[in-house]
Design goal:
Length: about 200
């Protein structure tokens, strides 16, 4: 059963070093556009990938998001940050993109940085946890770890294109994945009209 949050609770967004920085950008952009508060944290590898793929420093993105809405950033090494505690209420967490290293760590309870600890908190508090995984092909270790997380209540959300919608650009695919993430978090109950399949394309 989905729900649309009206609590004003923040959404946690973790960004790991998997390729696909644009997925993090479009997700945070959409959350802020919809009026949600966002608390983000990114690994050092994620910041490196961001510079490589987005042609800007991650610090520039942080300042832009602060200008666009209710956004804050917490360092990945700060295990005393609010989101590391279950007593701090959130509307859930998305890790986007999510590396297989992060999948493995979370599946086995290795809460050794703020992303992994916040994910562990989401699981133990039974809050929505969405993992936008980025890897292909997948080996049996990846699949077992993801199956374990799914059994724990996490949503595994590969950013798979909706080919029937006729996506033309990477931005189209990232935008679609971001809307799917919103639904998985329970922050929306349907895709925008132009993303709904009608069978008459």
């Amino acid at each position: 059963m989905t729900f649309i949050s009206s609590s004003g609770l923040p959404v946690v967004v973790g960004i790991t070093g998997a390729s696909g920085a644009i997925l993090a950008k479009t997700t945070i952009d959409l959350l802020l556009k919809k009026g949600h508060s966002v608390i983000a944290t990114a690994s050092s590898a994620a910041r490196m990938v961001w510079r490589e793929e987005m042609d800007e420093s991650f610090g520039v993105a942080i300042e832009r998001w602060k200008d666009d809405g209710d956004f804050s950033y917490q360092a990945v090494g700060d295990l005393s940050a609010q989101i590391s505690s279950g007593t701090f209420s959130t509307a859930g967490m998305a890790i986007v993109p999510c590396s297989m290293a992060s999948v493995a760590a979370i599946a086995h309870g290795l809460a050794d940085n703020l992303i992994r600890r916040a994910a562990d908190v989401s699981l133990k508090e039974r809050r929505p946890l969405v993992l936008v995984i980025r890897e292909t092909p997948l080996n049996s270790i990846h699949l077992r770890n993801m199956a374990s997380l799914a059994e724990m209540g996490a949503t595994i959300l590969p950013p798979v294109p909706a080919f029937y919608l006729g996506h033309k650009t990477i931005e189209d695919i990232a935008d679609f994945a971001s809307h799917r993430t919103m639904i998985a978090l329970g922050l929306d109950d349907r895709l925008p009209i132009h993303m709904n399949y009608t069978g008459d394309q």
